[in-house]
Amino acid sequence: MANIKFEIIEKIGTVSEGAKGWKKELNLISWNEREPKYDLRDWDEANEKMGKGVTLTKEELISLKEILNGLDLA
Q1: pLDDT tens, the chain, 74 aa long
Q2: How large is the C-alpha radius of gyration of the chain?
Q3: Are strands 23-31 and 6-17 parallel, antiparallel or unpaired?
Q4: What strands lie across the sheet with 23-31, from one edge to the other?
Q5: Measured torsion, CA atoms of residues 20, 14, 9, 28, in degrees rounded to the nearest 10
Q6: Are 34 and 25 in contact (CB under 8 A)?
Q7: Which of 4, 3, 6, 73 is nearest to 39 (CA)?
């Protein structure tokens, strides 16, 4: 498997934390020195190991926000 380079540009927030210390985080990340994208995935405490996640452009994140704002979660 090829080496994946990443740089966390901005830590936006933590959605949840598991019993073993892994956190589901929303971050702005540059993957392989490309344009940064918004990324939601599980990370270990040191942000060195990661789980599978979802990467979104700014436009996709805006669309997701609009969808979530329209949900009745009460």
Answers
A1: 578 899 999 999 999 999 999 999 999 999 999 999 999 999 999 999 999 999 999 999 999 999 999 999 98
A2: 14
A3: antiparallel
A4: 6-17, 23-31, 37-43, 50-56
A5: 110
A6: no
A7: 6
Phi, then psi, of 45 in degrees rounded to 5: -60, -30
State residue 73 phi and psi, 5-degree precision: -100, 10
Interatomic CA distance for residues 74 and 19, integer angstroms: 27
Tokens of 24: 């589901």
pTM for this model (two decimals): 0.89
Rounded to a whole number, what is the largest CA-CA distance in the chain?
44
The residue assigned the tokens 């927030």 is: 13
